[in-house]
Amino acid sequence: MFRRIDEKTLVAGQVHAEDIAAAKAAGVTMIVNNRPDGEAAGQPPAAEIEAAARAAGLGYRHIPVASGFSAGQVAAMAEALEAAEGPVLAFCRSGTRSTFLWALARAEVGDDGEELMRKAAAAGYDLSPIRALLQR
Predict the structure, then answer these.
(1) Residue 56: which residues within 8 A CB-CB, separation 6 or more?
(2) Is the N or the C terminus of the chain less surrounded, counting Cβ atoms within 10 Å?
(3) What is the band of 56 on the pLDDT scale with cuts at 50, 70, 90?
(4) Are 33 and 64 in contact (CB under 8 A)?
(5) How many domains are there within the chain?
């Protein structure tokens, strides 16, 4: 269910409150929710995931991405990754937006774009749509 993209980041599709225990067991210390509330029918609200994360002693950030990536979203993701004391689990509908946002945040702090593309590919994600944005 969780895909590791680097030593500090895992991504996933939609996470539910009952998935938080598995995330904690995997060493996750922070949950980052990249879905806007109400994006799809049956999607749990952000507040529900946040409550479950906090009850399990995990940090939580909500950085919703609907379309495109703003500088603010990239900065918020970079800050979340930096602030976490251990692995972060970022999720969206399929894990793709979370992986894109992770890569943009890592590129912003100087990580090599080609290396980011390799890490994402190893986890099953294709960053070619944002390749030009990863070349800093």
Answers:
(1) 20, 21, 23, 24
(2) C
(3) very high
(4) yes
(5) 1
